[in-house]
Structure formats: structure tokens, C-alpha cells
């Protein structure tokens, strides 16, 4: 049982006046895989919009220890992710200095890139990463815990950093204003704050299920993120878009704290975006159910939020044989909250004309190409 206090607050106005836009009843709280007899937990996935500012949040929240009880492999598989990590490293490369703090490195860890360059051996790198590993060829301090004021004090982090970096992290933070304040405090006066974040606006407009969920509780479009950065004392020097529907790289520099007088109100705009999102999901499930009715050899791609979203929006899984996934660590396990077993895509070789339901957002092209070219060219995608 997940207990919640009634503490849904807009990060900008502090208003508690929210309106519910979307609810997916009894949704799985974890977006990975588990063993057969694991008992999953469920919680209503509510999309709520603030009536004063139009900020959108998922609420209630899942406790962090339940939400991240183990890694689910996000950001590890595929060429697109590898290209992202390489491009992000190039984006920060010129600002690399001798004293760096990396927050939530995980599979996106920039420390892996630094460790390959001999001239960087004198860099002092500190990483907040609950699942991180120390790299022996760097002066690397790993803190296996979450980044928050309590742990900053607990681990005696009292020095200033030239550079603070994180990748696909801030969208996971439950208290983003506090997070940015802490980053600001730990930076040198001329320090840089560089990060990558999903392009959530584009993802929502395209109906991607991985945009907002229990792990991504805030709708961070550029307008909200820019506002919060300026409010918390960061000057935005540069932005770079990685692909259309993937990520935005931000280069910011520590600045004086500012009280922004400009009002923030995107209620009408954001309400329309999210109501259109639910309409897209409903129409898509209806279309899929019609297409797979009485069909055989049907598969669903992705042991992740993509498949969970379809299933808990009403996808008929009675004719679906397996969920497919490229991550070998997920094979023969069960997609959390479902009765669906995960198999390697290579299983498609056994079927003459398999049908694959593919809703993996920006990864669709890469997945489709690999299956057609390397596994079964007669595969039909819907």
C-alpha cells in the first residue's frame, strides 16, 4: 500500500489548485521486468494541471525506493542512445575542468568518456549515483545515494565545483526548484551547469508514452524549464537539440538569483495538449484492437512504459504471443504488472508473417530497421 500526503503544489506559484486531466486506473508503478511470482503494485496515474499557471504533474508520487528498486536498462540499448551520449560529451567537452560533480550518471555517465582520455587523469570527479561504480583510472569519488540536501550534508560535500552535469535526470526529480537551488549553491561563481533533458513537448504532441509517467512527474517543456533556471540563478548560454523528438542539451552558467516579475500562465495551451494526448491514446488503442482482431502471430515491442501504456489503456492482449525487447537482461521475465513474457526479437524468425505492434517513439525507426534487415523481412509493423 502506497501512502500519500496531499501535497500537490505548483513549483512556480505554490498554488494547490489543480484540475485532473487524465487518469489511468491502477497503473503499474515500475516500468521494467520482474520474475514470474513477483507481486506488482499499482497506483492511479493522474495527470493534473494547475489552474493558475498551467504546470502539469503526475500525482500521487511513488516512493523512490519502490520506483527505482532496480535498474530497468533505460538509456543502455541501441545506436540512438549511444549517439546521444557521444553528442552530449562533445557538448560539454570544452567546459571540462578539474573539479566536476556528476549527478545520477548511471548508464549515461560522462565518467565513462572521461576515463578513456589519459590527460583527464588529474580531474577530480564526484558522482551521486545509487547504482554507480568507481572508475580506477580516474580520481573518482562515488556516492551511492540520491542527490538531496540531507545527503549533501551526510557525505560532507562542502566544496565548490567548476562544472555540474547530469543527463536525463531533472525530469525524474520530485522537487525541481530545490534541486536547482542545491546545484547553484555547489557551483563556483563562474561555474557551469550542463545537462540533457528529454524534449517533452515534442514527445507529448506525438503521443509518446515515455514522456510523462511515475518516473517523469513534471511536464518540463522549454518555457517552464527556462523560467525555473532563470529564477534559480542560471543564465542560459546555449541550447542544442538532439534529434527532433529526443533531447535538448542545455549549457548554463551560474548567475545572480533573480525574482522574475513576468507571470507564467500556460493553462489553456497545456490543457489542450494533454487532452489531445489522451485522445491520441484512445484512438490508437481502438485502431490496434480492430487491426489485430482474429489475427495470429502478433507481438508487442518493448518491455517498458510503451507496452504498459497500451495495455492499461485497453489493448486486447489475448492474441499477443510475447513482448519483444532488445535488452538481454529482460528475456524470459515478465513485463511488470502484466502476464506478458519477454522474448528476444530473434524469435520472429520462427514465424512466416509475424505482426509487431511498435510504439517506441523515437526508437521506432532503429527497431524496425534491425528486425527487417537482420531477423525477418516479412514482419509487418502496425
Characterize the structure shown.
The protein is α/β, with parallel strands linked by helices. The chain has 2 domains: 182 residues, Rossmann fold (3-Layer(aba) Sandwich), CATH 3.40.50; 88 residues, 3-Layer(aba) Sandwich (Rossmann fold). It is built from 10 helices and 17 strands. The strands form 4 sheets. It has a 7-stranded mixed beta sheet with strand order 7-6-5-8-9-11-10, with helices on both faces. The longest helix is centred in the C-terminal third of the chain and has 26 residues. It is globular and about 65 Å long.
> Any low-confidence stretches, pLDDT <50, length ≥5?
1-5
Q: Helix fraction?
A: 25-40%
Strand proportion:
15-25%
Largest sheet: 7 strands, mixed
Assigned CATH architecture of the largest domain: 3-Layer(aba) Sandwich
Key terms:
Rossmann fold, 382 residues, alpha/beta, single chain, 7-stranded mixed sheet, 10 helices
Secondary structure layout plus pairing:
Elements: E1 18-28, E2 33-34, E3 42-50, E4 56-58, H1 64-67, H2 79-92, E5 99-103, H3 111-114, E6 124-128, E7 139-143, H4 149-154, E8 161-167, H5 176-186, E9 187-198, H6 200-205, H7 222-231, E10 234-242, E11 247-254, H8 267-292, E12 298-301, H9 305-311, E13 320-324, E14 334-335, E15 342-343, E16 355-357, H10 364-374, E17 380-381
Parallel strand pairs: 5-6, 5-8, 6-7, 8-9, 12-13, 12-16, 13-15, 16-17
Antiparallel strand pairs: 1-3, 2-14, 3-4, 9-11, 10-11
Amino acid at each position: 500500500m502506497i501512502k500519500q500526503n496531499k501535497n500537490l503544489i505548483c513549483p512556480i506559484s505554490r498554488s494547490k489548485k489543480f484540475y485532473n486531466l487524465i487518469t489511468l486506473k491502477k497503473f503499474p508503478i515500475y516500468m521494467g521486468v520482474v520474475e514470474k511470482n513477483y507481486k506488482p503494485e499499482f497506483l492511479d496515474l493522474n495527470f493534473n494541471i494547475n489552474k493558475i499557471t498551467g504546470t502539469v504533474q503526475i500525482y500521487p508520487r511513488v516512493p523512490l525506493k519502490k520506483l527505482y528498486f532496480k535498474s530497468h536498462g533505460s538509456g543502455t540499448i541501441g545506436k540512438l542512445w549511444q549517439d546521444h551520449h557521444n553528442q552530449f560529451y562533445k557538448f560539454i567537452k570544452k567546459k571540462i575542468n578539474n573539479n566536476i560533480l556528476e549527478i545520477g550518471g548511471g548508464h549515461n555517465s560522462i565518467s565513462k568518456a572521461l576515463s578513456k582520455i589519459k590527460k583527464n587523469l588529474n580531474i577530480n570527479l564526484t558522482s551521486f549515483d545509487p547504482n554507480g561504480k568507481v572508475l580506477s583510472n580516474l580520481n573518482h569519488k562515488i556516492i551511492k545515494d540520491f542527490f538531496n540536501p540531507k545527503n549533501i550534508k551526510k557525505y560532507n560535500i562542502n566544496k565548490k565545483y567548476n562544472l555540474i552535469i547530469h543527463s536525463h535526470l531533472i525530469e525524474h526529480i520530485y522537487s525541481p526548484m530545490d534541486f536547482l537551488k542545491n546545484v547553484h549553491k555547489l557551483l563556483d561563481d563562474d561555474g557551469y551547469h550542463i545537462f540533457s533533458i528529454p524534449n517533452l513537448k515534442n514527445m507529448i504532441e506525438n503521443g509518446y508514452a515515455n514522456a510523462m509517467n511515475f518516473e517523469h512527474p513534471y511536464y518540463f517543456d522549454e518555457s517552464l524549464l527556462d523560467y525555473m533556471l532563470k529564477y534559480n540563478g542560471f543564465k542560459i548560454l546555449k541550447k542544442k537539440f538532439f534529434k527532433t523528438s529526443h533531447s535538448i542539451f542545455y549549457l548554463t552558467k551560474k548567475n545572480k538569483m533573480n525574482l522574475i516579475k513576468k507571470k507564467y500562465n500556460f493553462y489553456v495551451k497545456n490543457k489542450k495538449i494533454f487532452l489531445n494526448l489522451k485522445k491520441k491514446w484512445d484512438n490508437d488503442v481502438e485502431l490496434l484492437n480492430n487491426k489485430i482482431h482474429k489475427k495470429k502471430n502478433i507481438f508487442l515491442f518493448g518491455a517498458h512504459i510503451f507496452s504498459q501504456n497500451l495495455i492499461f489503456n485497453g489493448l486486447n492482449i489475448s492474441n499477443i504471443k510475447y513482448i519483444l525487447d532488445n535488452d538481454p537482461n529482460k528475456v524470459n521475465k515478465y513485463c511488470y504488472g502484466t502476464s506478458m513474457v519477454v522474448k528476444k526479437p530473434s524469435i520472429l524468425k520462427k514465424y512466416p508473417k509475424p505482426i509487431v505492434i511498435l510504439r517506441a517513439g523515437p526508437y521506432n525507426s532503429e527497431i524496425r530497421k534491425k528486425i527487417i534487415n537482420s531477423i525477418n523481412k516479412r514482419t509487418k509493423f502496425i
